[in-house]
Amino acid sequence: MKLQVERDVLAEAVAWAARALPSRPPVPVLAGVLLEADAQGTVTLSSFDYEVSARVEVPARVDEPGRALVSGRLLADISRSLPARPVELVTEGTKVTLSCGASRFNLLTMPVEEYPSLPAMPSGSGTLPGDTFTEAVAQVTIAASRDETLPILTGVRMEIEGNRLTLMATDRYRLAMRELEWQPDAPETSAIALVRARTLSEVARSMGATGSITMALGQGGADLIGFEAGGRHATSLLVDGEYPKVRALFPAESPIHAVVERAPLMEAVKRVALVAERNTPVRLRFEDGVLALEAGQGEDAQASESLDATLTGESISIAFNPQFLLDGLGALSTTYARLSFTQATRPAVLTGQREAEGDDDESYRYLLMPVRLAT
Amino acid sequence: MLHLDLDAFFAAVEQRDKPSLRGKPVVVGGTGWRGVVATASYEARAFGIGSAMPTMEARRRCPNAAFLAGRFSAYRRVSEQVMALAHELSPLVEPVSLDEAYVDLGPTHPGLDAAGVSALAEGFRARVRATTGLTVSVGAGPSKLVAKIASDLRKPDALVVVPADEQRDLLAPLPVRRIPGVGAVTGERLARFGIRTVADLAAADEAELVRMFGKAHGSGLRAYARGIDPRPVVPERDAKSVSAEETFAVDLTDRRELVERARRLVDRVAVRLATGGVSGRTVTIKLRRYDFTTLNRSRTLPQPTASPREIAQAATALLETLDVADGVRLLGVGVSGLTEYTQQDLLAELDEPAAPGEEPGAEPGGAESGGAEPGGAEPGGAEPGGILPQGSTAPYGPPAPARSGWSPGQDVTHDEHGPGWVQGSGVGRVTVRFEGPRTPVGRIRTFRDDDPALHPAGPPVW
Fold it and tell me: Residues in domain DNA polymerase III beta sliding clamp C-terminal (chain A) (predicted)?
């Protein structure tokens, strides 16, 4: 193998491929990034940890096609630190020599034939705009659980019904749900998948900048999901298990709702939450025209603040974990936030709203379970 | 001091919600091959069926009884209502289990005489009846000991008030086994020394008792026998942790049985957390092996919880890590790190009747399935149309618990026929009786067990 590639192109490609490297590889070869150069002038970099695979194709000047497996971590560190000059990679026996300007590195190779073959992209795909996808993933992954003892809740549930794509995640305290459109290859596509939230965030972050993302979900018994954008491919095993029927958690109707300017509300919550010790709630009291916020009680430090709010329905007092409330408000992008309630002990729904008077945007809903205070 | 005890609690809730079972023998407990009876209705007790009896034995004694798997969310709801009513009497309420609590009237009603206590307790009993439709027996006395004995004296649906000057006469003729801390072993040892009644124990030589049972236990027993019970009522709010434990009559080796016991302990802990209005972050299990070695394991959750589901999940996960093959004498579940606020659990709203570890129910009154444990063979499985593989290895940890089928007694609703409950299931069919607490006896209908119109439901509203 002998090739020459631009330093930035290489660094970006290696950074992408190294994403899927396991921190503690079960077998040594999995710590490697597989380099494959073909006569058509394409270099493919791949990594795989049996769960997530990443593959990227970049243009290069290929003098001799070939393959080599080198330490991904080392290659990522090196390519990041190289001067902005063309990089040459040449295999010499059991080593790969990397030269760039006046720098030279000799890298050990691992046996290519021991490297597992990457899973094929599932069939049955469709496309959606990268920025929409990135926004949607960010909106729901905030609600996914980080507690590995219940793997199902660390996932994002994806439901596809024709051109409707729904993303959902919950850590049992809040539930985020985003509905969006995508363009499936087959109009009657129907599929369900549970994808680890962490994997999905990384994929969305690194692919979102490209115009359009292809997402591939197998039919029937497939246990893989695949993504492709701008020469980058990723696959991930799905999380196994039955996802709770969370759609039923959204209240059928909310007799009470308040509309508040979003940015000032977030500022106010952050301020009063300063006195709220770990996990203690902020209390919200909605009365006609006013939202009063309070945190801290008894002999502890206390804080309060009030701001304008438009209330429809009876006044209500409710308490939330401040971080959970901020996560939900932060996931919106509209000027106003609508908080809809049934009772103080029942979950509240957070939606975005463009104007003070008007309808809310139900394409994103954040359901938040209140904190119950001892009476 | 009051002791409240709901009469045949689980069975009574079932009879309340299922008109067809009123006046009939009802047994709530593990309906599987090796389950035990949790509660038997008074009609079933007439056949000699009692708590902790193996369900197989109960079936033999009364094959025609309704054997139900239990609906803990319904019991919890009732329990919370009753505990809330108890809190109206006094803030000092100490729940012992879902159906039992002590109330100290001291702070709210100082210097109350027997007539005053009677009036107060009758008012409470009437409110319980009106709110929940159930009967509660109440015992009143100068101590927890006397109150508890009194509540049991004329069960069901009775009030017994024991003034301080009558407690001696009440206690004297009772068998020693009625004293807390006197179980089968202690009772037998006492009997060998001719001590059979509480009066015998009260008259026994203290030095002798201390020699037999040790300092604390020996003198404690004698004090109880003399009506001296210094135990205060400790409301959960002031407690540092809440726990419940159970010593088994026979060492348990079956993990599924232990999981079931753990879930019952969790329910006791959860109702006490709920009545105290507190929640905790750390779940602990305590396990004493056959050789008396005791192991404690704990796990701290991301948020404080009072949710029985979450506590059960943590407790069963902890139980998984311990070897039980040699036999377990005692199991305990506790929650600590208590706070006065609770981040409520969204998923508890779904009120899933099929919690982890629960076995798919055998059909009540039907043929036993020959001991074939149906634990792994899940009916239904992944949703139709889903792409989740069934039986593929779970990449991120243990596989999700098998979803159980319909359990006998479970609340369901049918798109066409409305609310009802599962009377039995098996061989791909499920039989549902369509009735509710306020309806006449309903009709039964049988469906395929994957009928899309049939859904699990929450407990009916009384």
Answer: 248-371
Residue of chain B with shortest Cα separation from A298:
B340
Determine whether B100 is an active site residue.
yes
Class of domain A250-368: alpha beta
B344, B393, B403 ranked by CB distance to A369: nearest: B344
Q: Are A125 and A161 in contact (CB under 8 A)?
A: no
The percent of residues above 70 in pLDDT, for chain B, comes to 87
Q: Which three-class secondary structure string do you get for B36-72?
A: EEEEECHHHHCCCCCCCCEHHHHHHHCCCCEEECCCH
Does residue B5 have a known ligand-binding role? Answer: yes
Residue B382 within a domain? no
Residue of B nearest to A175 (CA): B346
Q: Are residues B214 and B188 in the same domain?
A: yes
CB contact under 8 A, B350 and A246: yes
pLDDT at position B351 is: 56
- Which CATH entry fits the domain spanning A2-114: 3.40.980.10, 3.40.50.300, 3.10.150.10, 2.60.40.1120? 3.10.150.10
- How far apart are alpha carbons B244 and B246 in whole angstroms? 7
pLDDT of residue A241: 86
> What's the ipTM?
0.80
pLDDT digits (tens, 9 = 90+) for A38-62: 999 999 999 999 899 999 999 999 9
B99 carries a ligand binding annotation = yes
Distance separating alpha carbons of residues B452 and B415, to the nearest angstrom: 9
Q: Say how many residues make up chain A.
A: 375
Question: Is B346 in contact with A280 (Cβ distance < 8 A)?
Answer: no
Q: Residue A348 is inside which H or E element, if any?
A: strand A348-353
DSSP letter at A184 equals: E
Q: Which domain holds residue B255?
A: 241-367
**In chain B, what residues touch A238 (CB-CB under 8 Å)?**
387-389
Contact state of B347 with A172 under an 8 Å Cβ cutoff = yes
Q: At what angle do helices B206-213 and B215-225 cross, to 10 degrees?
A: 130
Q: Which residues of B touch A172 (CB under 8 A)?
A: 310, 345-347
Chain A contact for B341 (CB, 8 A cutoff):
yes
CATH assignment of the domain containing B346: 3.30.1490.100
Q: What is the dihedral sign for C-alpha B65, B352, B12, B357?
A: positive
* Cβ contacts of B352 on chain A, cutoff 8 Å: 244
For residue range A321-356, list pLDDT tens digits in order: 999 999 999 999 999 999 999 988 899 999 999 998
| Least confident piece of the model among A166-170, B111-115, B145-149, B430-434 | B111-115
Q: Say yes or no: B249 and B293 in one domain.
A: yes
Cα separation of A129 and B182, whole Å?
73
Assigned CATH topology for domain A126-247: DNA Polymerase III; Chain A, domain 2 (3.10.150)
Q: Which residue of B has its CA nearest to A51?
A: B395
Q: What does the mean pLDDT of chain B come to?
A: 82
* Residue B396 lies inside a defined structural domain of this protein: no
- Chain A partners within 8 Å of B339 (Cβ): 279-280
